[in-house]
Design goal:
This protein has 457 residues and is α+β, with helices and mostly antiparallel strands. The protein has one domain: Cytochrome p450, CATH 1.10.630.10. Helix content is 52%, strand content 10%. Strands 2-3-9-6-4 form a 5-stranded mixed sheet. The chain has a 3-stranded mixed sheet with strand order 1-8-7, with no helix packed on it. Strands 5-11-10 form a 3-stranded antiparallel sheet. The protein starts with a strand and ends with a helix. The protein binds protoporphyrin IX containing FE. Protoporphyrin IX containing FE (HEM) is lined by residues 75, 91-92, 103, 260, 263-264, 267-268, 271, 326-327, 331, 393-395, 399, 401-403, 406-407. Pfam families: p450. This is Cytochrome P450. Its cofactor is heme.
Amino acid sequence: MTQLKPAEEMPGSFGLPILGETLRLFATQGWGLTKNYQRYGPIFKTSILGKKYAVLVGTEANRLILQEQADHVSSYLGWKVAMEHIFGRPMMLQDGEEHRRTRRLMAPAFHGKAIANYFDIMQTEVNNCLENWMESSPISIKNEFNQLALRIGIRLLLGVQLQSEVEQVEQLYNTLTQGALALLRLDIPFTKYGRSQNARRQLKAFLQKIISDAYGGLRQRKLQGNLQESCEVLGLFLAAVDEEGNALADSQIIDELIHLLNAAHFTTATSLTWAMVELAGRPQWREKLRQELAEVVGDEPLNLGHLKQLNQMTYFLKEIERLYNPAGVVLFRGVVKEIEYAGYRIPPGWVVIVAQGLTHRMSEIYTNPESFEPERFAPPREEDKKDSFALIGFGGGEHICIGMEFAKMEIKIFLATLLQRYDWKVTPEYQFNNYHQLPFQVEGKLQAQISNLNLKN
Ligand code: HEM
């Protein structure tokens, strides 16, 4: 039997006393993860502000942490420093039975029939957005997608339809998230953080009011016997009761809704930004996707059934997920029970980092991992099918993204509509094949000029 070594003996460096590798984190905006991986291999240690981290890379590590030994780690302890002060305790910051109970109650809003009900609002928002772009081109791509995805979120997740209220929530939400990275968390007036926390209080009060109003609507629907007919997520949350009679408390719903706005918008906006940029530089892929749309959709109005048949678009979007990791290149979990992995014992108190961004570029999984090849996901290659933890841009295991279908539907509706009606150019011209650059380091600078496809031809 091989002797397990203490985690301190892993390759890697704890950096300076107390600060650890904190300065390096800010200097590289990405922790130099790729360099450390090349230098130390698929398991290495680091330290940030006195906390010890073990970075794990590869499908086996992904499966162990996210699924097989999920009860040895805590999502709460992994994410709380970054998220709790902004979002409270949504289910992403819950563990074990508490997390499973919340997730069971939330799940109906993100599957099957409920998802189908979201199609029309998504399509309307996408059409409005593209019409505006035609009038105000050139547009700042990431900002526009942030706004689109946030508006879709506000309408579908909160059920807010009145334009003035949509704008009010948008503003409060943006002020709230501006405080997320404040170094000094002083909740006093005239500071960024104080304004952010004030926005959080106002947003909570606003949501409490729409929850109270929605209860009225719910009672009405109960009387009419169509309790499950709600067209937005909030209504389904209010109606949800599990087999033991548990329901979601108002305070929990409020935390979930604020977090959902976040989870649903920056990720979707990042995917759409890079899909649009990659397509701008790849005329053969624009052509391939347009041809597929012509075959599947033809002259019919786009519908959910069509989206499911867009295989080439699915492969294309998987390549965006693999190379751009829209939710970030790493996931955090705090260790609560010792983990044995790769010859080391990782004790409670450490944080493990699941480095999805590095798994996605392993040559053991993907052929020519640095090159953009959506066809790697098509038969016969199907490189992601070698292992269910090879492509984990939406996470894996118990905390796998609950909004995955919602996101994929929104992204496909946008791309289908864009490709069918418009053409576009992106400036400045993006340097492809630099997928180690983190999306947020570049995306703010990208602009698009769009034109009407029919006028061009
Ligand atoms: C391209 C779009 C998206 C990507 C790449 C993405 C990615 C992820 C990832 C990686 C996680 C796992 C986090 C972890 O394990 O710590 C996650 C969780 C989550 N996502 Fe998404 N997401 C996207 C869109 C959405 C949308 C549209 C929604 C809601 C409408 C959403 C709601 C959530 C929620 C609530 C969780 C927490 C799940 C749990 O803890 O059980 N996401 N997402």
